[in-house]
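Good morning,

Attaching, inline, the backbone tokens for the sequence recovery test we're adding to the shared suite. The designed sequence is right after.
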């Protein structure tokens, strides 16, 4: 192991036990500079600016000072020296280890300087330069880190002894030689070996990054690429959003682009993903960049229609290909033109982009058994292929690094070396009839890189924002300059080469990632003749005024909120309880503050300067409530030892200079916020008290009313009582305030703390009852026994004690339907007691849904993402507390899912639930049907006795139902009918359809053929929708077959024009073969793994894939 590398000062604790390695047999001399450097200074892959060797003879080693500095020497115009601690630095044990460092010698260097140096330090025998100990390192020397080296270079005793194969000691006759080999490297980007502490992307590059929400690096990379395609940015700005009141996708994208253009800090994308309809968890799902680009472009094209930006996406990114099939011996050719927005290039088995284009336009010969049937010419030898009719101004190349391995039945990533040029000419791949009036030379503009494997990883993008600018790397919130080598060589994949030898990358894109997993995934080229136009700068003045005004206001508001947060230490928050808020409060104390089970009480809140005087604040409150300041008192609420929050004492106004901070610190010292109760004192009441009791102050008691009939416990207000008054006197005062007859019998309880509610003695005085200011009592009108018994039968609370117990165990539970049914079920919340049993909870939910509680089934939620977890079995002893079990990491606390069943959950024990999605006649998912069936039911019985009653069959159809599951997204696996329901896995997604009449008849007709068909988007592995079976007819040309496919899938003429049809032969070919109208599919030699593929946009996400969606 090498000695630990670090700076000399300040000392760093050395936790490593590493020391210099013993000499090896490949001996070189420290005086042989070239040989020594070749052996010990590895090639860093960077260009050398200067190389210097400095020799420092040292005598009387034992008599040297604790810290010794060598004479200065120069390298690359910089002054250096060697810093030596002969007996070790302070963080090593004294007289134990030698410490030695390379030190930057110019202490007057200007601020912001840096030098990147690779160096080796060696201590050698003064007479034999082949006897030495060395260590090497590299470092970015800066004002903050001016020295770097080895605190534990070598054990001191080893320098004086013959050890580890050395023929002589390093220090002989108390003399030795220290040699410094210093290689200063060029740093064209300015960020070589940068630690990025206090790095300012805007200052260094003129650009800012995008914040990562969790796994949105793929989105950030694409957004930066689109943003720096300036014509695209201009088109996005042109989408009218003046009338958008919520975050639509265009407005949210405009906000991101405008902030990227004008902000000094990295930009957030939360509003954008919200506009997509994504929830929090979606930001932690990594999607495919190409799919995200396609979905986003489709959405924007839709929004651009009828606006000044209409057609701009097509103009920028769309080109055209021509698929052809040409007979060799007769004059017959079939062609079909198709637009594209990106080009998929094969990577496997190919070395570079040029080879991929040649592969793309390669001619396939149709001969022998694979001859082409050409209308009246019969079977003919033919050439089949694709050529380009046009290339767009901005060309997106998708490198097919990911593909499906049918042998292993899984996706894999291809990490082979694959090169791409800075410039290329695409004219050789054009159709001979294509327009060549404009040059087809393209310049590389962007490289989107993926680092990782098929299961995930990290994306970043390399972009050259202007034609004559430098390359930049956009890696989430950081933007740094890069060299052309980093753009090209470092991301070709495979093993990178320097001077013909493998070498590690200068800056690994992902910490811990191996080089072979980091490679280009998408390339952006711009037509050379259009570069200046497409990348023309966009000034702030060119942004529509309404957009500028709106977004500038948003920014100012955000800055104001930030200032408020930054100045928060100057303010405190004051919350005021009034008689009105007390009367609305249902719970303990006068208001709810820190109860995790229920929301805090909505109280009037004030952001008050700590330096504001209390007298001013009281006047402010008095004005707001139309009181005279002398008629109100503000009581400070404190946390009592028994966990209650009660008014403790009123704030006095004897000191007019007393500040609000002083009030809080002196009267509520342990509280962050100041909680006050506003007491209004009626002058007449005050005068009456003085008449009766003189100057002795009253006790302020708060009273709550437990209303049995309404099952509420609400505040009545505050009362003034004398310490010698009896509790029965308070009962008279309550009856008088409520207008009850004076003889109305009341029961009065003291609310001591949440789990201590005690009945008060009516004849006891308040002194005897130990009542003080701020105490709370509650009362109820006494009930007769028959009335109490009747309420008990209705499971209603009959005493405040019971109601307080409910408060103590109260929890708000959210209920959500488990499935998305065509008839949506409500989401709602219920306040339940943790002590409620399963049946009590089910009863309350049943009342809410007007459904039999025994026909409700509940499912717990996953605390991490809120998805349904495990079904709850009905048990008598089960309580709500056990059902919700809110965990520390739970993001959706107290959430349960419910299902409305047709049978009771008691009956469920002997049955199994099946959910089958019915696929209509046009291969569209119609609706789902749920069945509760005896476990020994056969799948044939499911189809004939259960499903048939729920679906509508075609009047003149086959009348036969097929139940199937989807395999690999591309094939139906049918049930024979003999399988039992109990053997169907819970995770199996079931589908069913009426077998088409022509397929049903074909079962007994050897003259027709039934083949599998599936839907995909661009890549055959990216399946969607429901695969189906299709009948081929003898001699039918594909032009007619296509019309039947259109009928079978219910596809409109507009969508049919966008759909591509292909033959997918997984056993023979890696890429789909386009189908022509003249093809006769019946004549194809069909084998297993042959499919008809329908290539089109996934407008509705199928059940087999969780893909990108933008609402």
């Amino acid at each position: 192991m090498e000695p630990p590398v670090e700076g000399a000062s300040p000392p760093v604790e050395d936790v490593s036990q590493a020391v210099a390695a013993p000499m090896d047999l490949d001996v070189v001399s420290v005086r042989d500079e070239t040989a020594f450097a070749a052996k010990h200074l590895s090639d860093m892959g960077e260009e050398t600016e200067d190389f210097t060797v400095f020799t420092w003879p040292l005598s009387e080693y034992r008599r040297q000072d604790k810290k010794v500095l060598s004479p200065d020497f120069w390298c690359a115009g910089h002054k250096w020296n060697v810093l030596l601690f002969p007996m070790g630095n302070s963080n090593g044990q004294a007289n134990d280890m030698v410490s030695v460092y390379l030190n930057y010698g110019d202490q007057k260097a200007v601020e912001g300087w840096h030098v990147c140096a690779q160096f080796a330090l060696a201590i050698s025998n003064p007479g034999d330069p082949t006897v030495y100990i060395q260590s090497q390192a590299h470092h970015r020397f800066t004002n903050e880190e001016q020295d770097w080296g080895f605190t534990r270079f070598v054990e001191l005793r080893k320098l004086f002894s013959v050890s580890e194969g050395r023929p002589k000691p390093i220090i002989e006759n108390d003399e030795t030689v220290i040699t410094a080999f210093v290689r200063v490297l060029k740093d064209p980007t300015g960020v070589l070996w940068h630690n990025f502490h206090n790095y300012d992307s805007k200052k260094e590059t003129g650009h800012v990054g995008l914040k990562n929400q969790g796994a949105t690096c793929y989105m950030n990379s694409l957004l930066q690429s689109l943003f720096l395609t300036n014509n695209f940015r201009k088109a996005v700005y042109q989408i009218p959003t003046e009338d958008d009141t919520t975050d639509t996708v265009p407005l949210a994208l405009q906000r991101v682009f405008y902030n990227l253009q004008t902000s000094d800090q990295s930009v957030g994308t939360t509003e954008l993903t919200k506009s997509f309809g994504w929830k929090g968890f979606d930001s932690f799902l990594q999607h495919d960049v190409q799919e995200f680009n396609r979905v986003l472009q489709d959405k924007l094209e839709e929004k651009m229609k009828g606006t000044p930006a209409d057609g701009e996406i097509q103009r920028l990114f769309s080109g055209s290909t021509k698929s052809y099939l040409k007979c060799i011996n007769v004059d017959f050719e079939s062609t079909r033109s198709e637009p594209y927005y990106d080009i998929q290039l094969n990577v496997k088995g190919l070395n570079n982009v040029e080879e991929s284009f040649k592969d793309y336009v390669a001619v396939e010969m149709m001969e022998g058994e694979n001859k082409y049937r050409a209308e009246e010419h019969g079977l003919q030898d033919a050439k089949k292929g694709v050529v380009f009719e046009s290339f767009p101004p901005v060309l997106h190349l998708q490198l097919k690094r990911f593909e499906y391995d049918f042998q292993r039945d899984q996706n894999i990533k291809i990490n082979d070396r694959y090169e791409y040029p800075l410039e290329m000419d695409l004219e050789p791949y054009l159709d001979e009839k294509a327009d060549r009036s404009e040059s087809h030379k393209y310049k590389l503009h962007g490289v989107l890189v993926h680092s990782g494997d098929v299961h995930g990883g990290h994306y970043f993008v390399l972009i050259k924002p202007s034609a004559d600018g430098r390359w930049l790397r956009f890696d989430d919130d950081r933007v740094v300059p890069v060299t052309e080598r980093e753009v090209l060589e470092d991301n070709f994949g495979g093993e990178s080469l320097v001077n013909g030898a493998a070498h590690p990358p200068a800056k690994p894109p992902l910490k811990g990632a191996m080089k072979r997993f980091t490679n280009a995934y998408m390339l952006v080229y711009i037509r050379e003749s259009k570069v200046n136009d497409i990348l023309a700068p966009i000034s702030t003045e060119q942004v529509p005024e309404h957009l500028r005004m709106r977004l500038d206001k948003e920014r100012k508001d955000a800055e104001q909120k930030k200032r408020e947060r930054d100045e928060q230490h100057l303010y405190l928050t004051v919350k005021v309880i009034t008689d009105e808020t007390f009367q609305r409060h249902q719970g303990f104390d006068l208001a709810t503050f820190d109860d995790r089970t229920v929301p805090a009480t909505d109280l009037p809140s004030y952001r008050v300067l700590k330096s504001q005087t209390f007298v001013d604040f009281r006047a402010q409150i008095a004005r707001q409530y139309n009181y005279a300041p002398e008629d109100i008192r503000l009581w400070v609420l404190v946390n009592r030892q028994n966990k209650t929050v009660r008014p403790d004492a009123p704030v006095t106004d004897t000191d007019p200079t007393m500040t609000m901070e002083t009030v809080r610190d002196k009267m509520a010292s342990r509280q962050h916020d100041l909680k006050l109760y506003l007491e209004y004192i009626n002058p007449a009441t005050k005068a009456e008290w003085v008449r009766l009791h003189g100057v002795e102050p009253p006790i302020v008691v708060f009273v709550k009313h437990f209303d049995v009939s309404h099952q509420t416990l609400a505040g009545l207000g505050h009362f003034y009582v004398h310490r010698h008054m009896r509790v029965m006197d308070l009962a008279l005062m309550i009856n008088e305030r409520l207008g009850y007859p004076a003889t109305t019998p009341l029961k009065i309880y003291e609310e001591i703390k949440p789990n201590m509610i005690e009945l008060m003695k009516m004849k006891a005085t308040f002194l005897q009852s130990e009542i003080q200011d701020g105490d709370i009592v509650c009362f109820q009108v006494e009930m007769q026994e028959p009335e109490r018994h009747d309420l008990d039968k209705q499971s209603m609370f009959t005493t405040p004690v019971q109601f307080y117990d409910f408060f103590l165990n109260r929890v708000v539970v959210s209920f959500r339907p488990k499935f998305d049914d065509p008839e949506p079920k409500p989401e709602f919340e219920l306040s339940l007691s943790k002590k409620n049993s399963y049946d009590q909870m089910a009863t309350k939910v049943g009342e809410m849904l007007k459904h039999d509680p025994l026909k409700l089934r509940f499912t717990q939620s996953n605390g991490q993402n809120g998805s349904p977890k495990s079904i709850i079995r009905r048990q008598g002893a089960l309580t709500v507390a056990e059902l919700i079990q809110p965990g520390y990491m739970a993001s959706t606390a107290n959430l349960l899912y419910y299902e409305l069943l047709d049978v009771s959950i008691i009956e469920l024990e002997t049955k199994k639930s099946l959910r089958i999605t019915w696929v209509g006649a046009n291969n569209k998912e119609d609706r789902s049907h749920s069945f509760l069936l005896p476990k020994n039911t056969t799948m044939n019985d499911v189809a004939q006795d259960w499903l048939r009653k729920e679906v509508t069959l075609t009047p003149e159809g086959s009348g036969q139902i097929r139940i199937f599951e989807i395999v690999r997204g591309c094939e139906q696996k049918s049930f024979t009918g003999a399988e039992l329901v109990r053997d169907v896995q819970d995770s199996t997604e079931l589908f069913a359809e009426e077998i088409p009449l022509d397929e049903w008849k074909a079962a007994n007709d050897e003259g027709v053929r039934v083949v599998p068909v599936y839907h995909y988007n661009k890549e055959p592995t990216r399946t969607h929708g429901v695969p189906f079976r299709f009948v081929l007819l003898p001699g039918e040309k594909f032009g007619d077959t296509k019309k039947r496919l259109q009928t079978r899938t219910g596809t409109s003429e507009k969508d049919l024009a966008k759909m591509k049809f292909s033959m997918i032969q997984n056993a023979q070919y890696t890429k789909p073969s386009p189908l022509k109208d003249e093809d006769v599919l019946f004549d194809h030699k069909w084998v297993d793994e042959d499919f008809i593929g329908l290539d089109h946009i996934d407008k509705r996400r199928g059940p087999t894939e969780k893909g990108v969606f933008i609402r």
